[in-house]
Amino acid sequence: MPEYLTLLLNCPLVIATIFIAGIGGTFQYGYCVSVMTSPSGFIKELVNKTCIHRYNLSLEQWHLSLIWSFTVSIFCIGGLIGALVAGSLISKFGRKRCLLFNNFMAITGAVLMLLSQTAMSFEMIMAGRFLCGLNSGIGLCAHTMYLLECAPRQLREMVGVTIASFISLGKFSGQLLGISELLGTEKNWPWLLGFISFTALFQLVTLPFLPESPSFLLFERGDRPACEKAIKRLWGNNDYSKEIEEMLKEKAALQNVRSHSVLELIQNQTVRWQLITIVVMFVSLQLCGINAVYFYSFEVFRAAGIQEHKLPYAALGTGLCELSTSVAFFMIIQRTGKKVLLFRGYVGMSTTLALLTVTLYLQVSQNTSPRFMHISAYFDAEYENLSLNPFILPSIICHGCHTAAWSSFSCSFSLLPVDQVCLSLSKY
């Protein structure tokens, strides 16, 4: 482990790339997942006030819950669309430029949500959430590809963990800023929703100082001098002729192979088992229910018997558990390996969810204490983070010109609103 840390510290521009790409990439995805919990009551109040002001009509509770569920879930719809179109955009414009332009979408969405209370329009929150979903879908794909292609080959596993780490940091930040002592108040909640504009501006200002992905420069543009220059800037001023020769051999092998779209990738029989692996990994993450815990954490912990004034802090605990697990994951992945960590994560999630099912049954049938729901949410967050390793799978099993399609395909599964839709429908 120390030798890998030393190698990483010898590449300061790679470290800068991790932070700059992460804060405007998967951080925004994680933030948008958790940020809606704290201001949920204020947003429902805005919806009701808007209808009274426009139509002189006060909505019933189930109407408010339906509109609220749609406002929450539209983020995932935008994310799914963004992930599906990301592959072609990344191949055409490049990883770095795609990340840069993507920030304008986040800023626009944040401004819409920031002004929603002033304009007395909950539809602006819906539009802003949809734009933030598009931003997250594209950013998730572009960030993953850009970061892994900029990292030295022997550090890609460790660097790849930071993709999930910034998702966890984003979730924790959304929960932390949402407490009543900070932005989770009736006056400041629009600033809570608009906070991602600042992270987008940060990346917009700093990312131009970083080089483009060496792989994109060589494979897509065929610019070897620019590729060599980018590698030396990122990895240090040493001789990397061996690495470049390996890249050239890979390019020569793919000389007559054109880039595939997502649909062509699905239809390709030669990669069927790789596709099945990706689908199983990412769909199981969706079905673990962790996104529902974040989107509806107050409802989950309220049902677990947590007092109302303690709900924000109980929700904050899930984000802290996931973030701490991610840091530990970063420290041990090179020694333990991806397969072992994935296996442990999925076994842990399966065990936790099985115990949760039994506890819920006992709570309904025998009126037992619901406290285990609270504990299981924390464990689910920890094990879910261990299983976020699938984000680096496409870079391992894909091939050169198919990288963008693989990334787009896999990230689209991570943004499917399966658990949110199921939880919303269960209320009616």
TrEMBL record:
**Which InterPro entries does the annotation name?**
GLUT (IPR045263), MFS_dom (IPR020846), MFS_sugar_transport-like (IPR005828), MFS_trans_sf (IPR036259), Sugar_transporter_CS (IPR005829)
Q: Which GO terms describe its cellular component?
A: sarcolemma
Pfam families given in the database record: Sugar_tr
> What are the BP-aspect GO terms?
D-glucose import; dehydroascorbic acid transport; fructose import across plasma membrane
Localization, per the record, is: Cell membrane, Sarcolemma; Cell membrane
Transmembrane stretches, start-end = 7-31, 66-87, 99-120, 126-147, 159-179, 191-210, 275-296, 311-333, 345-364
Catalytic activity line of the entry: D-fructose(out) = D-fructose(in)
Q: Which domain of life is it from?
A: Eukaryota
UniProt family annotation: Belongs to the major facilitator superfamily. Sugar transporter (TC 2.A.1.1) family. Glucose transporter subfamily.
Task: Name it.
Answer: Solute carrier family 2, facilitated glucose transporter member 5
Source organism = Amphiprion percula
Identify the taxonomic lineage of the organism of origin: Eukaryota, Metazoa, Chordata, Craniata, Vertebrata
